[in-house]
Amino acid sequence: MSTLDRNEDAPQLISGIHCMRRKCGLELTFQSNCMRNLYTNVIKVTSKNVIQKLRVRGSLVRELQQLVNKASDMDNE
């Protein structure tokens, strides 16, 4: 291959490089969108559910503690 042949291939190589850069950029954007969707739809929702369950359990524990206190107060009377 002579120098002239390589120079004639340069525009195709350059356009191929630009095409690959665009494709990689689109794939990275797609992957970051997938990660964002995963966070908002799965992790955020799961953590909200866990927090709500902990709140419910906390209130149940408080109610149980109040019942135990009432029962011990009745025993003391």
Give a structural overview.
It is a single chain. It contains one helix and no strands. 96% of the residues lie in helices and 0% in strands. The protein starts with a helix and ends with a helix. The protein has one domain.
Features:
77 residues; mainly alpha
Tell me briefly what this model is.
This protein has 1 helix and no strands. By secondary structure, it is mainly α.
List strands and helices in order, with pairings.
Blueprint: H1 3-76
Structural class: mainly alpha
Sheet having the most strands: none
* C-alpha end-to-end distance: 106 Å
Q: Tell me the Rg in angstroms.
A: 32 Å
- Average predicted local confidence, pLDDT: 79
Count of individual domains: 1
Cα shape: rod-shaped
Question: Helical percent range?
Answer: over 70%
